[in-house]
Structure formats: structure tokens, C-alpha cells
Batch of 3 targets.
Target 1
Amino acid sequence: MGYVFQPTSGTQPRGDTPAATRARGVTPVTRIVIIGGGPGGYEAALVGAQLGAEVTVVDCDGLGGASVLTDCVPSKTLIATAEVMTTFDSSYEELGIIVADTVSDEGSAAGPPPGTSARVVGVDLGKVNRRVKRLALAQSHDITASVTRAGARVVRGRGRLEGQQAADGSRKVVVRAADGTEETLVADAVLIATGGHPREIPDALPDGERILNWTQVYDLEELPEELIVVGSGVTGAEFAGAYQALGSRVTLVSSRDRVLPGEDPDAAAVLEDVFRRRGMNVMARSRAAAVKRIPGAASQGPSSPDAGPEGRVGDRVEVTLSDGRVISGTHCLMAVGAIPNSAGMGLEEAGVRLKDSGHIWTDRVSRTSAPGVYAAGDVTGVFALASVAAMQGRIAMYHFLGDAVTPLNLKTVSANVFTDPEIATIGCTQADVDAGTIDARVVKLPLLRNPRAKMQGIRDGFVKIFCRPGTGIVVGGCVVAPRASELIHPISIAVDNNLTVEQIANAFTVYPSLSGSIAEVARQLQTRKAADEG
């Protein structure tokens, strides 16, 4: 059970809290307005409604937000197709699967040059993307049904705070609909959960056809022949790996020394090696300065048999790097970060403090600097994860409505990069250990030693666990493997519950299984701990 986090001076909403009013035997209806229907917003709506509040969700795109409609759900659905292709392409020969040769009309083998491997499967990207959109919309509709069934009201439009807090502690939210009409809502508490949008470079503005951001790739009907991905963070790495698996020739432009600069360095090194081995052109220490579209030959329009969806034959893009080099491809995907959706909402006028980046400042129970105003999700810049946004939204409702609440603890947040192999992390990191922030013992075990990995043809990946030297308490971990997002869970449980390496080592695991490597790492840490004590 959690505890009630006591407000600090200057941030307590004026007037009685719902809990204080209930203590006097009164049962008021607490009015909550949530601006934004992403994970932070809709999870907060469910909690608020379940606790008896009158909840209104203001949303302009559809519940689920960018996470469901244009980001997490669509990208992971696309990656699921890529994953099937990669698994088959990389291991069918080793596993003894026979694929018949293709013979041309002339009767000669139409295979690749000697010494190279044929792509034995292909992809209909238009069909894949139609499935992506269908699943995203279905998920959004399911969320809307859950929220309305819980008793919350959904209003379509864009919301903004109007002025300062009233004498009775309430606030006004003005909702502007697509047709220009406005509605004013009165709320005892407001939650801002408006998310973010793709960052743009002035000389590389997306056109939705050849120069794309990550929300536009699902409109493609044909697979890009040569895709340039600008940005090697999580989004860039995920899309680069996915499109390479689908059959595109991919160039990944990274301004840093390595891909995934914010991740475990050992994990990033494994992924970069895999990318290069599979034929990706990874350009490190290369910063894109501009991207432009180079028109091809004019066609008779999109219906021309030689024209692509854009209605031109042979259109290309050129990416100019900061050192003057120019690289060319058929498409360019810009993955250079995100901007919070905090502008034009009257936040600063209402007393909400913004960071220089535009993100909303919050404490560990999701309060902003303005009484009665909370914030959750990507607009806060805390952790760009749907799970964190959802937790922030739930915490905000628990706190305002007087329920027991445990403040947000980022050390117990597990995260995953959906590349192939996946990279999952929890708690303490290698950077923390290297910087001396925490004293921890580390053991890393390659998956090559795991019997199940050998059976499945898995060559790349490892399990790494961090524990305290004296107690053996597990404080972090990193898994690089297929389905690392599933394998990280036992380590997450250990971190969250202060379990020791002895407890993990003594738990039974299935033989053979990839999870056996987690127990083996724990046993090695247990042995080191015993040696230190001896």
C-alpha cells in the first residue's frame, strides 16, 4: 500500500480537497477535465471515473493519442511484420528449412550472384500499412468504449486553460471544436496530457511523400528502395531496422559516435554490429543539415504505369551533411526528436511553469506549479514511454482525489527498444556504474552460451544484471535478445521488490529456455558475492 504524498507549500489546491469534504459527510461531485486522450489522459479518466469524479476528456484526434494512432501501436505492428521476415531470412538455412529456387521464363536460375543470399520472402507494404491503420483505429475505438463505459464524457476539440484559478479553487477550460464553436468547462482539477509531435529541421521539412516523419510512413503504398533515416535514437533505430528487414536498402545517419547513444553501450554495440552485418550503411558522426527532393521525369499523373504514388518517375532525395557530403536515396525519414504540445494552451498565463524545451515541469505526483493543474506523458519530458504516461495520469488522479498514492519512481521503469534484437532495460545502468553514481557488481552473459538460443539460431545478445556488492540486491539489468521486452520482467520484479541475486538464482527456470540465462547470471553474481565476503 502506498502513502499519501503531502503537498509542499505553494502547490496545494485552494479550497477543500474531495477527501476533506467527504470526511465531513458531504458527497460532492468532483469535476475533472483532462486535455489529451493518450495513455496519460485515458488512464487518468478511467481512474477518476472509478473514484466517483465527473470526468471530461478533451481530445482532437481520437482516444489513444499519438501512442495508439501514429506512434507506438503502428510502429510495433510494422515491426512485427519485419521481425517475422528477419527471423526467417537469418535462420532458415541453419534450421534445415529448404526453399525452392526460382527459375526464370528462360529456364535459368534467377537467383542472386554467387556467394550472396537471396531474399526468400517479400512484403506488400500497402497491405502491411492498411493492417497497421486498421489495428490502430480498432484500439482507439476500444479505448473510447472503455472510457465512456466507465462514465467519462469525451469532447472532440482542442482545450486551453482560461485565466487563473477562481476563488473556489476551480478552473475554466475552453474547448474549441473543428467547426470553430467553443464550449467552456469548469473543473476542480485539470490534467494536461497533450503529448508531442515530430521535431522538424527548417531545411528538411517533410512533404509526406519522399521526405517523411514517423507519422507519415504508414501512407506509403510501396516499399522505399533506398531509405535514408536521419537520427539514430530509439525511433530512428527501430524504423531503420524494420525497413531493412522489409527489404529496403537503408542508410542510417547518426550525429553521435554510435547508434542509440542513450542506451547501454554494450547493447548499442551489438545492435550496430547486427545492422552493419545485415548490410545497413551506418554513418556515425554525421549530422544532416538539409534534405531536398530531386524531381524525376514528369508523368501523366499517379495513374501512369511508370509513376509512383507521387505521380513522378524517379523522384529522389538528397541529404546534405554538415561537412558538405551529400547522400542520395529514394526516401528520407526524419527521426530527430519530438516537441511537446504545450504551446497555445494558456499554460504560462495560468501559472504553469514550462522548461526551456517547452515541457511542463511536474513533481513526482504529477503536479505542476499551478494549483489544481496536473500533467502527464510526453508533454512533461519525464520519460517518453506510454507506461510512464499512464502511471503519471493515474498518480495525478489518486493524489487529487485523496486516494493512497506512491510517487513516481523512475528506477523501477522498464523500457524496450523494438529493434532486432530487442534491447530491454530496468533500473541502474552501465553509465551509472561507470560514473560512480552507484557501487554495483556487474555480470554479462552472452546468449551464445544458452542452449535454447543455439537451438533457435540466435547468435546476438546477452543478459546483464547489476547488484549491490554487500547485500546482493538487484538494482538493474539489461537484456539484448529476441523478445527482450518479455525477458526483462523477472529482473523488473527483482528491482521493484529489492530481491537478491540469491533469490533469483534459487528460483526454478525451464530447461531449455532463454530465461535460464537470467538465473545463470544471478548465480555468477552470487559466486562473486561469496568470494568478496571470503
Target 2
Amino acid sequence: MAANGAPAGLTQGSGTKGGIGESTLRPDGVLKVTGEFAYASDMWHEDMLWGQILRSTVAHAEIVSVDTGEALATPGVYAVMTYDDLPTDVRHYGLEIRDTPVLAHGKVRHHGEPVAIVAADHPETARRAAAKIKVEYRELPLVTDEASATAPGAVLVHEHRTDHHSGHVPHPNIVHRQPIVRGDAAAAAARADVIVTGDYHFGMQDQAFLGPESGLAVPGEDGGVDLYIATQWLHSDLRQIAPVLGLPEDKVRMTLSGVGGAFGGREDLSMQIHACLLALRTGKPVKMVYNRFESFFGHVHRHPARLHYEHGATRDGRLTHVRCRIVLDGGAYASASPAVVGNAASLSVGPYVVDDVDIEALALYSNNPPCGAMRGFGAVQACFAYEAQMDKVAAGLGLDPVEFRRINAMEQGTLMPTGQPVDSPAPVAELLRRVKAMPMPPERQWESSEGADVRQLPGGLSNTTHGEGVVRGVGYAVGIKNVGFSEGFDDYSTARVRLEAVGGRPVVTVHTAMAEVGQGGVTVHAQIARTELGVTQVTIRPADTRVGSAGSTSASRQTYVTGGAIKHACELVRERVLELGRRRFGSYHPAWATAGLLLEGGKVVTDGGEVLADLVDVLEDEAVEVEEEWRHRPTQPFDPRTGQGDGHVQYSFAAHRAVVEVDTELGLVKVIELACAQDVGKALNPLSVVGQIQGGTVQGLGIAVMEEIVVDPVTAKVQNPSFTDYLLPTILDTPALPVDVLELADDHAPYGLRGVGEAPTLSSTPAVLAAIRDATGLALDRTPVRPEHLTGTAGSDRHPQDPPGGARNVTPSAPPGAPAKSRSARGT
């Protein structure tokens, strides 16, 4: 600074590196790929105890007695707790409906429900002590499907419902029901030249995150507790935990720990309350980590679904109407089922122009495993069915399936079935054009001068074929997904942004409660701060509840909503910094009085690039800090009778082309390529955008051909709770994944961005199924497709969720006794 106080060394601004639009590297990337990143399961505290849960061995039973004496007498055990030991009268929790008991009381409603918790000085001691707890069950009749849930005199999963959905459902075993009626579907059907119906079954998918549920609860000197946890939504957890503990929310201090994936499975509570209860009971830190077996029981899954559709069309390829009925199995507790129903209903027609619709979607209570949030959130199941229907109608009309979709593709201004206009770009036809125009992978890639490369064939290194019986198929699909929370939910985020000079350099600190679950939010948030404040050095503070809520890391919303909050807070910081500069230096240059000043490269510059001051000189010893909430446009609840209403804030679109090769003799499938075209509005980090699209695509591939939690329809027990028997795509199953990114800005969103992460999960599954149908000529109305479905060896009397003969190795649970028989069990 010059002696007279004016800024010295004025030069032209050079901008700031690492802002939006660049593929900056993730700050946690190297640590994760080298194995040095600390996940929640790696946490350690001196003198900590280990927590363990005893879970029910039956799916529906009265709890006759619980004997904890032998467990309490085990050396090294510090505490054993059951429902009767809970400290307050608040003993249930839930995202929307508080129907989930902290520990089972009176009866259990699903296989693997928590009954008791143990704290001991060693994890093996805790496990053995839990196994010593004697629980006597008297088994009750099971509710496993719609027929048993709604039959006259059906057993009620929850006997005394008082939640706000209970007055709008036709039966207490229906969690929520959402009809959507627009136009006159019956009259439109009379005008149709082709009517196609179909019944579809979508299997139960697991989020299968690699980092198991884990957390560390540390009792505080003030009677509170500090909880370090892997979760998706810190403040939602806090809202549910504090009342059960009998503590005010400011005494339950939550900090996000390293999260090894989520995909919706961490939106509900797992061991959060249990760890805190044990820590407060023993006065010692308590760590809980699920093993993989327990993880399958410790979180919700994707809703399995039964879907019935009717589509009509005229000879020129125009859709006349859609009728559909979607039945989702929510399992024993509500979780996110009401919102999933809303999504499934409102998005059930797909990205098409249809004026006349009659839609019903509902979720059941049953004694099957609880189901809730998973990537795609109700839209995945619907997309599988409506895209199969679109192929059927196209075939009935003799039209190319892509051309038929193009004819009916929605565009900006189209009305959704809910009556809501799509008020931002909806490039459905363009995405289809782009994905179809991508180069096709070469035929018979396995052939070489040295013979067949079996790695490129169905069956791979198992060497089941050298090309005989292998047929290629190609399939297309496109989907629509909402972004952000819907139906009138107050969807907001909070950001605290601080700008100060540290060591002679301007530094920005960003603090939010956003859960980084692997999506790359911490990377984008730093990019936003660099762009808005022109500072290279940005520190992202760990997420905790010492700042306001950021909402859930779900619904493809965090870049939109928390990114919007950071952008807004940065704008307010910038204005305060400029006002500070005007006070200090305004007399030295007339440009300080203009409105077009920017912060770039650590300096204050004019819109023409002339530097007015270094930020360090403007700030001196003063820090500028702002904490602000930010909300997107409001939405509306859907009408409970007609489903009409502006329920969503934004829509995203993706299209896929799948190329598969099928060994028709053995029923083996090799996905050769899954090409995707997706509109992202604005790619804030292009590399991360492509990664999200490819990851969602592979997750859709999994449910198409291999992933399914198998539940015994007789016992309602999970049959395959392991990564040995629950099959996941590996790198050997992953095909080429070319991506074409379209950027058509949504003027209502920060930077014009559009949520990215979920849309590719929708259309990849039906594209793979369409390609397999193209190769085999088979109808294929369920996911996942198994070898016996392709070879015609599936038994006609087999329930769709029965263990598939020969498709995988399944270790069945021990069969329960007769319904009225009492017996003792020592836990899973």
C-alpha cells in the first residue's frame, strides 16, 4: 500500500482458477484411492466401548419375554438395554411418520428388527453377550403382499394409526395413496387404434454402499452427547434423536464422519439413537459398526413394485391415454414411502405428452423389510414399466421405437399429468437423437486371429461359449426425474461463508451441514466460492449441526440448494467487502462508485478488468462473515383426489442406448455398451458430472440383470444378506459408458444447473431390458432378468421373489415354527 493509503501496484485482473465449469480435482480423491481416507468405521476413542444390536429372528411375532440376565452377567459387559430401559416416553422415530420403535415393544414387525442393545469392552464380547439374550416369540400371521394386506379381516401391521395419511387411504395397511386424474382416459381409449396393456414386477434393490453403517457417541460433561456419524441428513437425524434421549437439540452435537456411499440408505436412522443411549447409560464413548450381514437389515431398500399399465395410441403414433396402477411394498415401517408414492404417481407417464391419464400409486405396510429412499425414488420403478410399454405400442404400430418416442416427446411448456407446466428446457427428442447417433460398438468384438476372447463374451472367464448361440440386441429408453424435495416441503439450505486475510492471503471458509457421501459436493462448493469471491484458497469446514440445516443429500438437490445457499452467502459477503473497500479507498479512484465491481484473483476489479485493490488491503484485520438460508421456488402438495398441483421444482432428463449380447442357450447376458445423453443445465464440474452419469448408469444395469434382495414369501425372511449372494456389478461387468452432456440452462436455478445424479439410474434399466428383448424376442416383464427367464426354465409356479433355481447360491434362514407355537431364539 502506498504511503498515502491508496492501493499500490495496480494491474489488470487475471481471473481466478478452480471456479465453476472446470474439472477441479476432489480434495478427498487421493486419500480415498490410496486407502488413507478416514471413514466412520475407522473412528477411535480412548476407553471406548463397543455396541451391538440383537435383532429379531422372525418377521412378525408377539414378544412374550426378554431375558437379559445372562448377557448382563458376561464379563466386560457394561450395559444391556431393551424398550423398557428407554429414558423418555418418546420411543418411536421416523422421517415423516413416527412409527418405528427405537427397540421393539410388544411385537416385531420384520425380520431383523432391533430388540435389545449391548455395550461391552470388546466387539466380540458385545456380540456374544447379545447372542445370550433370550427372546421368546409367539409368531403371528404374515402380511407379505397386497392380497394379504387388504383382504377382509387382514392382520394390521400397525393397529392404531393416527398419522395424517391415515384418513386418506382405503385400508390401514396402505401407507399412502396418490391418484392422478386429468382429462378423460375412458373417452380417449375409445379413440385409440392400438391399446397395449402390461403387468410388471420390479425387484427389491439394495443401496449396497461399501462403507457399513457406523458411528461413535461420546458423552459430554454437560450431560449431552457428541455423535460422529455417517449419514445423509444431520439435522433430520437430530430432530429424531434428541426427543428419544430427552435432551434439547443443542446438547446433541452431531458431526459428519467419512461416508462410504449412501444412495438413500442413510436417510433413515440406523444405530444413531442406540449408540447415544449406550454412551449416556455407561458414561463412556460407544462405537457401533455393522458388519455386512447386519447392514442388510440395518437400512431401508428400494421398494419392490407391481405395476399395471395401459397405453393407447392412434395410427399416426400419437399417445391417446395412459392408465396405470403402481403398488409399492413399503415393508414394516413408513420411512419415505409417502414421498416415493408421490414421485411414482407424478412421474408415471414418463417424458411424454399425454393429455388423458388415470393413475393410482400406493405403498403398503407389510412384514417384509422396510423400504424407503434409493437413488431414483419411485421414478425408477415407473420408468421400467412405461418404457416397456412404449416399445410394445411402437411394435403394435409398426414404428421405430425411438421415432415413436420422439413423436410423443414432451418439450418446454408441456403439461405434466399433475397439470404442472414444464417451465425449463425439456430436450427429450434431442437426447434421443443424440444417443441414437452415437457410433455403435463393433460386432463380434470377441473374435481375433488367436480365437475367441472369452472375456468379451457372455459368461466371461467361465468360458461357457466361444460365440455359438450369442445374439446381439439394441434397446433405447428415456426417463424423467424430479430434482429437489417436492409437494410443498420447505426445501432450503444454510451456508456460512467467511472471508478474511490469513498470512497475507485472502482465504474463504465455507461451512454447511451438507453430507458429503461421495457425490463431490465439497469440490463444487469450493468452486462456487472461488467463482463468487475470486479467492483461490477455500477451506470447507467439516459438516456438523453447529450451522443450520443443509437438508438431505438426496433428490439430486445439494448442488442446486446448498450450492444456491453458498452462492447467495458469497454474494452478500462480496457486497460487504465492496462496501468496505468503498469506505477505505473510494476517494482514490472513481470506479469505486460504479456498480460493476468484481472480485477476481484476490483483487477488486472493474468489469473491464482494471484492478482497484488487493483483497488483503481491503480486509486488513477485518473478517466478513455471513450465514444465510436459501430456498428454491415453492412447490405445492398434490390434491389428494385428483393429484393436480405444481408439486416439483425442476425436472431432469436422460436417455440411454444399451447394446447387449445374449447367450440364448445358457441365458447369460453381456452388456457391451450403455451410452447416455443427458441434459445437465450447466456442468459445474464436467468430470464429476460424467462420473455421476456413469455411476447411475451402472446402478441401473445392476437391477436390470443381477441385483435383488430375495425375501421368502412364506417366512418374510431375507434369503441373501451378503455380497456373496446379493450380486453387484463389478468392473468386469461394467461396459463402455460413452456420455454426451447437453447444457441447456434452467433460468430458475443457480448458474442454470440441473440435478444430475438420479436421472441416469432411471433409463439405463429399461434400455438394457429392451436390448435383451430385442436379442431374444422374449417379453421379459420383471427385473432383474435371470438366466432361467431367458432359457424358459423358470418354474411357472414359482413366486417372483422365490430364490431362483441355479441363478445364485442362497443360504436360507431356518424356517419358523407353526404360527401359534412359542419358541426361544438367541438372535441373528
Target 3
Amino acid sequence: MTRATAVRAVLAVAVLLASVVITLTMSPRLGLDLQGGTRIVLQAHDSDTVTADRETTDRTLEVLRQRIDSLGVSEPTLTRSGEDRIIVELPDVQDPRQAAEVIGRTAQLSFHAVEGPGTGKPETGEPPAGDSETEGADGRKKPPASGTGPGELTLADEQGRSLALGPSRLSGAGVDDATAAFDAQGGAGWSVSLTFRKDAGQDWKKLTGEAACHPAGDDRRRVAIVLDEKVISSPQVDPSVGCRVGLPSGTTQITGSFSADEARDLALLIKGGALPVPVEIVEQRTVGPTLGAAAIEASAQAALIGAAATALFITVVYRLFGALAAVALGAYGVISYAALVALGVTLTLPGLAGFVLAIGMAVDANVLVFERAREECADRPKRTLRSALTTGFQKAWSAVADSNATTLIAAGLLFFLGSGPVKGFGVTLAIGVVASMFSALVIARALTEIAANRRFVSDYRGVNGIGRPGAVRAWLVRKDPRLFRRPLRWLVVSAALVAVAVAGIVVRGIDLGVEFTGGRLVEYSTSRPVDVETARDTLAAAGFKDAEVTTAGDGDLSVRTGKLDNDGEHALRSALAEEGGETKKVRDELIGPSLGDELRRNALIALGVAVAVQLAYLAVRFRWTFAVASVVAMVHDVILVVGAFAWLGRPVDGIFLAALLTVIGYSVNDSVVVFDRVRELWGANRKTPLDTIARRAVLQTVPRTVNTGMGALFILAALAVLGGDSLADFAIALLIGIVVGTWSSVFTAVPGALALERSAKAPPPAPGKGKGTARGKARTVRRDPLDNGARV
């Protein structure tokens, strides 16, 4: 064993031990789409007096935190996103009506003198926060800039009678404490007791003293307590209170027809304080705990089945070395999982799919190395197995680095341009790429080098798996098909496929998910079977004529509507319960129209940036003709995947966007491997026609492309079958993408490069360029460890 091998082995053991310890002692952090709960995204808006910036949004967040803590939700999470958005995550909350009501209330509390009966129509609706008077630290209010004179504000009291109110004399900021209490002896029911701060208590005394100057029964003897432009209580001042004397105590009581929940909510709103700026719910997602558990179970089954199939496949193809790569694949799973847990990454449903998918893609580097080693053994049959393996790792490094770099670019775009759970997919994909390189270049290399030093493995080349060329390579070499004698015909075929895809987009249209259009999508499970037509008629009779009803999962119903608030969703669920019995909400997505437009715009930006970044990277690493041809093939793949979903009638949503950006990375990955070999062969044979070079490069890399694709296909097929509706569309998009990506890397990218090179004036690449050496200088070939250098 050489020193380098020993270092790799020690490093592999150390990382594996640390990963095992982390796996056994730490638990993953699950997103709400896996553990169940509600996620609400709030958009802060400017008011007439306050701008929704970073500072005011942070203050709004703290007020919301106090409110949510008072609700008793276990382990809520509130974070600011950007300058003016707040993300609220409420684990285990399945009915978000109360939470959304408490969170969304501006809670502007004010106390007014009643000027008399109102003469105009009472004002209704909730004003934006900040339209009321400016609050001082002691709770005193100043009139707003627009002015609110006596009698200008007309509101309905508890009985619906109009009252003319004077300017606000006291605000909620002057309230020191608010508690809900039940008056069992007096029979008044639930009420809210207020305790004022010292200076605010004096204002309260003055306000009630002025009201006491009017006779009993006169409206002007009342004091109106207003919450968000709604009179919640307007009691008469007791006849025992003298004029200009007022109520001396620093407390008062808000009475009304409150339920226990209403009284508690009102108390916590007043105690928490008013929101500095108004907020709007632009996104609300609720996932039932059963759906998350089912997704975890399905993903685990898909991972086990897909990984077992992948391990069996590479063992059959590469025998002993394939079995060692399978061991490294298992180590990759442990390392990547431990990295996710140790870094505190929130594991979302798309992230879970990315983790499973990365298992199938982790064999890519091993396949590249083993195919290179097979070539070395075929070219120089007498060289030692260890020497061929070492050369295979050296020559495969360039393709491994470039292909993984393109995948990391796609992962980075997913993280920075994606939204919500899609960001989790980008993180897990990036961690998977790094872990797969470690498992291939450190763990698998250490195992195979140790095995290559054994005489039995070295002598019996049919056992090791790389001593003889594979059956596919041998057949291709024997047939030697002239693939690119007429390259334009392949471009015509690709153009025809694109035309079919575009026809699907035009004729069938793209079924944009609620995430991109705005609206609400709710999935229900019922105790009794309900067919789609019955459900549609039931909802139409209940007033939901525009609701779109489809089947989902195992007999579940999916209902998609336009704008629908939480009370409307409750009414919709009650209507379904009349036909289906007990009706449970499995999944709920509410997207505001402004956010839908933003997400749709960001999706297009993400695709455009992906194309530009990949083009820039490839232009630096390769000739411009190769870069353009690779990007054309990538766009070809994107159009075919979108067109296939249009023909199939599948929804296009955020998870589909994650799959599409992954397809972009995979497509460029395949093209990079082919063009890396073209560059190498062309540099070594500069006088050979380029179409001949391209044919040889394709025939040499086809085994790698097929073997790598098979690993991913096993995983994706398992996800498509076992993943349910949540992961099926993701798996189908990637299955289509891998198939068309394999096709385009050979029959679109290469013919496109040949066509572009006809007009290009750049000379062939210099010998040795692109093999991982600096500035194209030839690398010094390492001597075989068993070669003492003597020559006769």
C-alpha cells in the first residue's frame, strides 16, 4: 500500500466514523411539508406614515412573535425574508383560521369620545395600520396629518347604530396589560380587562370625566373603544361618576358578546400591540402529518430499492470494482445524510427527493474512472492493473470536475432563485455532489487501489471488472457506425422533436400550478368515496361554481379555486363532508396573485440565468463552438420536457422548476463528458477530420453515459412508482429529461458543434490541453509503482 492510498484510507475511515456518530446522535430537521403544519408568508406594506423597510419589518416580526407565543403553538419559527416579508412556520397547526386571523390583524386600538348619533353612513373595513394617529411612548396620540375632526369619523356601535366619534384620545400603546376573564357571578360573560400605564391612566380619567358631564342615556356619555376601525365596546360612564372627575382607577373593562376564544384573542392582540405596518398573507401552505409521513416512507423505500438496483447493476457491469463502488455508494449515503443533519439543513419534500436522486447520480465519477481504466488496459494489455487504475483516475479528473461543476451551478441557481421548499432541493443536491466526489475520489479509490495490489485480483482480469473492455464498448468498436457522416440529419430530427413539443405547448397549453397563477389548491380525504362529478355538483350547489375538482392520491379529492379565504375553505370542506362523511385536509396551498406573478417571473429569470451561466462556464472551459452547441442541446431538452408535460396534462409548479433546472445540469453534464473526450482526441490527432474524432469520442463515452443514466433511472423509476402525487411529477420530469439529455448530448450537441466548426477559424486544441494540466502543458506521467525504472 502506497502512502497516498494509506492517507485516503485513513481519511475515509475518519469521515465515516464521524458521519456514523452524527447519524446516531442527531435528528434531522424536517420541514413543515414533511412533519405537518402551516407555513404563512406575510408581505408588509407601506402606510401613509410608515415605510415597510427592514427596520419596521423586524419590529412587526417581534409583535407577531408575541401574538403567536400567546396562541400556545409549539416551537413556532418566524424569520424575515428580504426587506419586507415575514415567514411564519407553525408546526402541527392544521386549521390556520385562528392563527391567520390573529397574525393578520393590524390591532390598532383607540379610545374616542362619542359626539352623538352619526348622521352619515357608518364606515366599514379595516384601514391600513399607520393611518391612525401617531403614538407616543406613553400611549398618547396625536391627530394624523390628514386631520380627524369631531364628527368626521362615523362608525357603527355593537347594535349597528351609527355614532359620530371625536378624535382618538388614547391608543393601545397606553395599555400596560390585557387579560381575558369570565364573570360567572354577574352573568356578563367573557370580557377583557385593561390596565393603563400611569400617564395613559390620566388621559383615561380625563376622557371619562368629560363624558360624565352629559346626562345619563345620552350618547355623548359613552366612550367608544375602537379596534381596527370597528367599535368593539361603547359603554356609558356610570351615573355615580361626577363631571370632570372621571374614573380614577387606571383600569377598565371591555364587555361584549365575546366567546372564550374571542376574548383571549382580543387580549393578546391588545397586549402584543399594534403592527407597525399592515401585512397581507401572500402565501399559506398547510400539510397534514399523514402526507409528510407517507412521503418520508415512500422516499425511503425508493432510496433502498433504487440504491440496491444501482449497486447490483454496477456490480454486474464492473464486477469486483463495481462491488467496491457499491460499498462507497453506501458510504456516500451515510456521509451526505450526516452533512445534512450536522449543518442543520431543513429537509423539505423536494430536498428529500434531491437526496434520493443524488444516490443514483453518485456513481457517475466511478463509472468515468472505470471506463478510462478499461481503455488503458485495452490499449496496453501488459501494464499492471494498479497503473491502469491510477491513469484512469488522472484522465477522468477533467470530466469529473466539469460535470460536477455544472451540477453545482444548477444547485446554486435553485438555492438563490428558488422559493420555499425548492431551496432545500438546491442545498441537498449541492451536498450530494460534494459527498459523491468524496466517496468516488477518496473512498472508492482507496478500496480499489488496495484491491488492485492483490495478486489474485490483478492476475484474473475477468474478476476485477476493468481488465477487459465491456460488451457494449466491444460491440461499438466492432460495428464502428459512421454516426456523423451527415450531421445535419440529426439536427433535423431534433428540430422535429422540438416542433412536436412546441405544438403541445400551443395546442394543449401549459397547466401552470397554483404557485404560478395564484389561488388556492386543497386536497381532501373523505371517509366515504366521492366521485369527481358528485363533488363538483356538491360544491357548485354550495356556491363554489368555479371550483376545479380532480382526483389525487388514493381516492382523495383535489379542489382548485381562485381567491378563497380560510372561512371559505371551511365552508367548502363542510359541503364536501355532506357527501363524503368525515373530511380531512391533507394539503392546502394558498398563493396570492402578486406572489404568483412574482414566482412566475422568477422562474423565467431562473431559466434564463441558468442558460447564461452554463454558457459562460462552458465558453471558458471549452471552445465557443462546443459551448454554444451544449447550450443549444440544453434548451432543446428544456423545451422537450415542458412540451411532454403539456401533452400529458401535468401541472407545472415549483417542484417541476427544480426538476427542470436539474435536467439542465444533467444535460450539460453529459455534453461536457463528450466534448472533453473530443478535445482530448482532437489535440492528440490534429490532422484527423473532426467528424471522425467526434465519432470516436461518442463511441468511447457511450458506455459511461448509459451506465450513469441507468443508475439515475433506477432511483427515479422507484420514486415515480412509490412517491405518490407529491414526487411522481418530479420523477417523471427527470425521467424524460435524462432520456432526452442522453439523446441530445450525442445527436444534438455534437452535430451542432460540427456545423459550427465549419465556419470557425480557430485551430485545433493544443496537445494535452484539458486533461487537468495547467495551461495545457503535458502532465508528467507517473511511473508504475512496481516499475523500478530499469530498461534493457
